[in-house]
Design a protein that fits this description.
Elements: H1 2-55, E1 58-61, H2 67-80, E2 86-90, E3 97-101, E4 107-112, H3 113-118, H4 121-136, H5 139-163, H6 174-212, H7 215-231, H8 235-239, H9 267-287
Parallel strand pairs: 2-4
Antiparallel strand pairs: 1-2, 3-4
Helix pairs in contact: 1-5, 1-6, 2-4, 4-6, 4-7, 5-6, 6-7, 6-9, 7-9
Length: 340
């Protein structure tokens, strides 16, 4: 089903690309757009993830350069039954994260240094569980292809500006056609982004909460990330707005509402859904505690297995412990990080 949906999306984006090419340059422009679309299809499938990571200047890390961050991803991937994805770190103060890759065997997750510094250990785990949910649902291929195509269509619309004054332009609609292309191309790309992003974020929230075991960890993380994105600009995302839908929270400035032009669902709505999920899980534990084998059994085991369980705890209170402070401090990648 996901393969069919991706194929339909590629066909729709190709048709849109050709339509814009026809408006700009007539039948010749449409054929050129078809060739460009075919090349974009091939490039997107094999290399779009690398391009997205490069756009955000992501650096691959491992157990030596970012041991705690890497261990969290490794533990959650095992818990979700997924291959270990490549793990990247983005030197950016805005807290955010995304996943990319054409399939679970070739997936990558990326988190910003701002995320590791602003969130607790448990909240970081919840965010990475959300990104692994996108990998598990195979959303990453579709979302990455959309990012590539949306950027290409927007670029095609920009080309229309330069062709508008050309007297030899072959567009059958003349300047009006070029003007329409300039307006419709970026708008159409935005519509496609919204179509593949909004419902998938809710599904990834739900599955991510199941992987990490605590919906409220993710709810708290979303609140912190949203407030951080409002205060801190992300220059790389601003330069490449077609990739905004990949992030867990919209990294662009000026888009705060759950409106037609938003690439993400309203954060408050997502938090409310996670809070309702937490209540349902608590009710299920009360009514059917023996069935919760993968979940903690006692009050002193309120977290899923993971690298954070290694930390020394002076005592175990009767009620669930509060998340501990950020374990990375100012230097999340260790002495070898280029931003240390």
């Amino acid at each position: 089903m996901n393969t069919l949906r991706t194929a339909m999306l590629l066909a729709a984006m190709t048709a849109l690309f050709m339509g814009v090419g026809f408006l700009i340059g007539g039948s010749g422009g449409m054929m050129i757009a078809l060739l460009i679309a075919a090349g974009t299809n091939l490039f997107s499938y094999w290399n779009a993830d690398k391009m997205v990571l490069s756009m955000n200047r992501a650096v691959e890390v491992d157990e030596r350069t970012a041991p705690e961050y890497y261990a969290i991803v490794q533990s959650l991937a095992k818990q979700a039954g997924l291959p270990m994805p490549k793990t990247y770190l983005i030197d950016n103060p805005q807290p955010n994260a995304f996943a990319t890759g054409r399939n679970p065997q070739n997936a990558a997750v990326a988190a910003s240094t701002g995320l590791l510094q602003a969130l607790t250990h448990e909240e970081v785990a919840a965010v990475m569980a959300h990104e692994l949910a996108h990998v598990q649902h195979r959303d990453t291929l579709t979302m990455t292809i959309v990012a590539t195509f949306a950027g290409a269509i927007s670029m095609l619309g920009n080309f229309a500006f330069f062709l508008g004054g050309n007297r030899d332009n072959n567009s059958p609609f003349g300047f009006v056609g070029v003007l329409v292309a300039m307006i419709v191309a970026p708008f159409a790309a935005m519509i496609v982004q919204m179509a593949v992003s909004r419902t998938r974020e809710y599904e990834a929230d739900r599955r991510g909460a199941e992987i990490c075991g605590h919906p409220l960890w993710l709810a708290s993380a979303l609140d912190k990330i949203a407030r951080g994105a409002e205060r801190i600009r992300n220059p790389d995302a601003e330069r490449n707005p077609a990739t905004a839908h990949l992030f867990i929270i919209n990294p662009l400035s000026g888009e705060r509402m759950d409106s037609l032009f938003s690439t993400h669902p309203n954060t408050e709505n997502r938090i409310a859904a996670l809070q309702a999920m937490a209540q349902q899980m608590q009710g299920g534990e009360t009514r059917a505690a023996p069935r919760q084998a993968p979940m903690p059994r006692q009050a002193d085991e309120q977290r899923p297995s993971g690298p954070w369980d290694q930390a020394a705890q002076p005592e175990q209170p009767a009620e669930p412990a509060k998340p501990k402070s950020n374990p990375w401090g100012r230097n999340p990648t260790g002495p070898k990080g280029r931003w240390s």
